[in-house]
Design brief:
This protein is mainly beta. The chain folds into five domains: 26-293, Deoxyribonuclease I, Chain A (4-Layer Sandwich), CATH 3.60.10.10; 299-379, Immunoglobulin-like, CATH 2.60.40.10; 386-465, Immunoglobulin-like (Sandwich); 469-664, Galactose-binding domain-like (Jelly Rolls), CATH 2.60.120; 674-739, Immunoglobulin-like. The protein is globular and about 110 Å long.
């Protein structure tokens, strides 16, 4: 041990030097890019084209409108922000209350120290207000950003909204604060009263355009209205600067239109048509903020949160910290450092019971350190939960019935039941009743179990129909209210829906019907009696009766009816059909008429004509056929009347119990999907899922190919692209796609 002694004046000088060194500061400028963004398409949920625009323009602060993404869960929004901006960004979003909501929000590179939403009293949505955030910028000033989405109803309504917002800002923000109002104002012109109110305390100059000099300042999707703005307070305009990109500098800021901007390599990964998919163009302005950098020790602005996951799942902890660069992170479990856990996020992959316990993170820089709060990971073998229930079905006899159930939980077992009794060997996620018969109809359920519990699905009822029960529409032509008079009736269907009409100038009355097939009594059983047919030597196959019936959802169409002709009526009729509602085609051979007093049953199956299946435009008609083509003869002589005597134009043809039947359309099972890698870059893995067009597929992930560890990540309609932006944090990872039930 030794001692050094300094003169008193040296000690004072040394103390002064150390204090000055510790308080050294350096003045610099930080560029802050602020964007207004209503980049949703018609889905009102952010899509890949919008994410690419965010990635390419690299804003620091975004006033975002219609802030919805996937299922609108916290993890969905975290994934969206991580992918579009970065894991160091934070966000505030107005509350989501239900389907159709389009809340506003603020996304920031810098810490949000306070945030909230003021109600917009001019509209009824509880979460489409004025979303505001206080952002701690580098340096000494905070930035107050308000994200707005004014109404389209009228200019006077927007003026009222502007006046209300001005008052709220004056009442709640500090005097001379740095304020920016940005978003979708929906203004038709810059001369609206709302803009006159805003520009009493905010600046609209310079006005951004889509070009370095001149250009179009409009931001609506069709580029004909100024809808979107970034308006700073007057005190902040002193910091405005040009928006700099690799090939251009935009001195007034930028209205970004991907179909106008060149070269797109400046804003990779933006694609040419991205802006045309958005409701509005993005608008941005840049500000050069003076920063006095001091030696700031780290502080935690967002603590990690506790989690509960089932065995085999992944658990991710996240911390947000501020302080002088460079911040270093070390995650701990039970107070012991975790190997390679040195980022702001830490993921415990394939978590097991032993991984449960206390986690924390230590953040350090050259000027100090801080330890986060301790949070607990609970790994619990939770009982199963059914996420997709089996569905009731109606099929035709002989078809297969397939029931499917989707459940969450670890180590799941399945047992299907019929009428409450276990079905032997039916222990998978789906069960097929092959070649089902009417006796197979009834209640089906699935019981899902694991070591933590059991859950039973809802009852799915199987109905097995025969062709006779598959009536789509039927006409008995009897009076809707029985009146014991066969001369009165109706052409409104007695079963189902459809229309009946006359074609080719025919006329009709009601007469006695076919009592052998119709349920009406003899005194009230009507038929549809058509007459006034054209001469036999002209108008062949042009006159008769027509029936229009939608076969949507049905196939194997069969048409049946009973028919009789008068002695002088046409000996032959022809069934014709149309698949477009206009053009009719002959169906096979002609139909021989039966003369009075007998009715004869006619049954014609159109099952060999696929175009009549599932067709809302399907119609058919029965017309008189006079020419020799009815018998296949090459001569052109007309055919005699029903009795073989001379044809008479006063002849009639009666129809009764006109019936159109079919069975439910069987949808083909979706094909097996294919996966093709479409992009690999640091922190991101992207592939395309392709299967049967219009069918839904589920992307699943796991770390070890264990059948029980697959976790569903996304469900969408083929084809679609799946992006995983956390590959580096998960280590080894496997992906698959399966057809959705």
């Amino acid at each position: 041990m030794f001692t050094i002694t300094f003169p008193q004046r040296w000690l004072a000088a040394l103390f002064f030097y150390v204090c000055v060194a510790a308080a050294q500061s350096q003045t610099s400028n930080v560029n802050v890019r602020i964007m207004a963004a209503n980049l949703n398409g018609n889905t009102q949920s952010y899509q890949p084209f919008a994410l690419r625009i965010f990635q390419g323009l690299k804003p620091d602060v975004v006033a975002i409108q219609e802030f919805n993404y996937n299922g609108n869960t916290d993890s969905d929004f975290r994934s969206f922000v991580d992918s579009a901006f970065g894991t160091n960004f934070v966000y505030f979003r107005e509350n989501f209350t239900g389907s159709g909501d389009i809340p506003n929000g603020v996304i920031s590179r810098y810490p949000i120290v306070a945030a909230g939403s003021w109600p917009d009293t001019q509209q009824s949505q509880p979460n489409r207000g004025f979303a505001w955030a206080q952002i701690h910028l580098p340096g000494t000033n905070d930035l107050y950003v308000v994200s707005v989405h004014l109404l389209t109803s009228s200019a006077s309504t927007r003026a009222t909204e502007a006046t209300a917002l001005k008052g709220l800002i004056a009442s709640n923000f500090p005097t001379n604060a740095w304020v920016v109002i940005a978003g979708d104002f929906n203004t038709d012109t810059r001369g609206e009263a709302a803009m006159a109110t805003f520009t009493t305390f905010l600046s609209d100059n310079p006005i951004p355009t889509d070009a370095v000099s001149g250009g179009n300042p409009n931001t609506s999707q069709n580029r004909n209205h100024p809808h979107d703005y970034v308006l700073p307070s007057f005190i902040l305009t002193k910091a405005e600067t040009g928006s700099v990109f690799p090939s251009h500098t935009f001195p007034n800021g930028l209205v970004f239109d991907s179909t106008v901007y060149t070269p797109l390599s400046d804003v990779s990964p933006v694609q040419f048509g991205d802006s045309t998919n958005a409701q509005h163009m993005a608008v941005l302005k840049d500000f050069s903020v003076v920063v006095v950098a001091t030696n700031v020790p780290p502080s935690i602005t967002a603590q990690p949160q506790p989690q509960t996951v089932p065995p085999g799942s992944n658990a991710t902890f996240t911390v947000t910290a501020a302080g002088s660069p460079t911040l270093l992170y070390q995650w701990r479990f039970n107070g012991t450092n975790l190997t390679s856990a040195t980022g702001s996020n830490f993921t415990r992959t394939n978590a097991q019971i032993a991984d449960g316990g206390p986690y924390s993170v230590v953040v350090t820089n050259d000027f100090g350190s801080v330890t986060s709060s301790v949070v607990t990971l609970t790994v619990s073998n939770m009982p199963p939960s059914i996420t997709t229930q089996p569905q009731s079905q109606v099929i035709s006899a002989g078809q297969d019935a397939i029931f499917t159930v989707v459940a969450s939980g670890a180590s799941l077992n399945y047992q299907w039941r019929f009428n409450g009794t276990n079905i032997g060997g039916a222990t998978g996620t789906s069960y097929t009743r092959a070649g089902a018969q009417p006796s197979d109809g009834g209640p089906y359920t699935a019981v899902v179990t694991n070591t933590a519990g059991a859950v039973t699905s809802v009852v799915a009822t199987l109905t097995v129909q025969t062709v006779a029960s598959g009536i789509i529409a039927q006409w008995n032509f009897n009076s809707t209210t029985p009146d014991t008079n066969t001369a009165t009736g109706t052409i409104t269907p007695s079963v189902g829906t459809g229309t009946a009409s006359l074609v080719g100038g025919t006329s009709s009355t009601f007469a006695s019907g076919d009592t052998s097939v119709d349920s009406g009594s003899v005194t009230d059983n009507s038929s549809w009696n058509s007459s006034t047919y054209p001469a036999a030597t002209a108008g062949n196959k042009t006159a008769g009766v027509k029936f229009a019936v939608s076969t949507a959802g049905k196939q194997n169409i069969v048409i049946s009816w009973t028919q009789r002709a008068s002695n002088t009526g046409s000996k032959y009729t022809r069934l014709q059909y149309t698949t477009d509602g206009t053009t009719f085609s002959d169906f096979l051979s002609c139909i021989t008429a039966t003369n009075a007093p007998n009715f004869e049953l006619k049954t014609n199956s159109l099952s060999a004509i696929p175009a009549v299946n599932n067709n809302p435009n399907f119609a058919f008609r029965i017309v008189a056929e006079f020419e020799a083509t009815a018998t296949g003869s090459a001569n052109s002589n007309y055919i005699a009347a029903a009795t073989g005597s001379t044809y008479g134009s006063s002849g009639t043809i009666r129809y009764d119990l006109m019936t159109v039947a079919g069975v439910p359309l069987v949808q083909p099972a979706p094909s097996a999907p294919t996966l093709s890698v479409s992009g690999v870059q640091p922190g991101q893995f992207q592939f395309t899922v392709t299967g049967s067009a219009g069918s839904n597929y589920i992307v699943q992930t796991c770390a070890d190919l264990s059948a029980s560890n697959w976790v569903s990540a996304k469900t969408n309609t083929s084809p679609f692209t799946f992006t995983d932006t956390n590959v580096n944090g998960f280590g080894q990872r496997f992906f698959r796609a399966i057809a959705a039930p």
